[in-house]
Amino acid sequence: MMNLQPVEEQELIRGLIARKEKAYRIAFQLYGKLVLNAILKMVPRLEEAEDLTQEVFIELFHSVSKFRGESKLSTWIYRIAIRKSLDHIKAGKRKKRWGKIFGLSDLGQLEPRNLNHPGVMLEDKEEAEMLYAAIELLPDQQRTAFVLARMEGLKQDEVAAIMNTTIGAVESLLVRANKKLREELKHKLK
Fold first, then answer.
1. Whose CA, among 51, 99, 163, 168, lies 20 to 30 Å from 89?
2. Distance (Å, rounded) from C-alpha 140 to C-alpha 64?
3. Rounded to whole angstroms, how far apart are CA atoms 67 and 83?
């Protein structure tokens, strides 16, 4: 996560609230790739992740005046990104369910994952596919904690701030997520 000095961050926030184009350009330069990579780990289809990244910055534009400064700006932006990702995932599940109910099979079809993005460091793309498939099976809270802590490399206190929960809750979510992933991957590798 990009760390601005408090004075620089306050200056950026004032520029965003004043709707200065330069401030938005700076915010996108500072946080755009971080947001895209975080979203790619939740929604690993590049085109969808790019669209969601744009939505995050559109929401930033419209709601920055509501930012209360209780956390760092980057934490607040991450929170928007995670919420947008989870909303997108839930909408996809609804489409699949309605597609099955009404026999619209193409609604359940998704394009193949883009495993050539920076979030995939594994040599074997099959292993990456299995990992992402297992991550998608996690409940939303566990998936969010796992992606932020294990894949984004954020500290547990940062994850807790983004998820608006306690460090203890994050630890518990990570333990449960790790256990479920181990079980799922062990099952798939048999």
1. 168
2. 26
3. 16
Both structure tokens of 89 = 């995932």
Amino acid type, 39: I
Place of tokens 């760092």: 72
Structure tokens at 28: 């996108």
Burial class of residue 37, CB neighbours in 10 A (0-12, 13-18, 19+): middle
> What is the C-alpha separation between 80 and 17, in angstroms, rounded?
17
**Domains in the chain with CATH codes:** 1-109 (1.10.1740.10), 121-190 (1.10.10.10)
Residues of the chain with pLDDT under 50: 97-98, 100-112, 122
User: pLDDT tens across 138-159, in order?
Assistant: 999 999 999 999 988 899 999 9
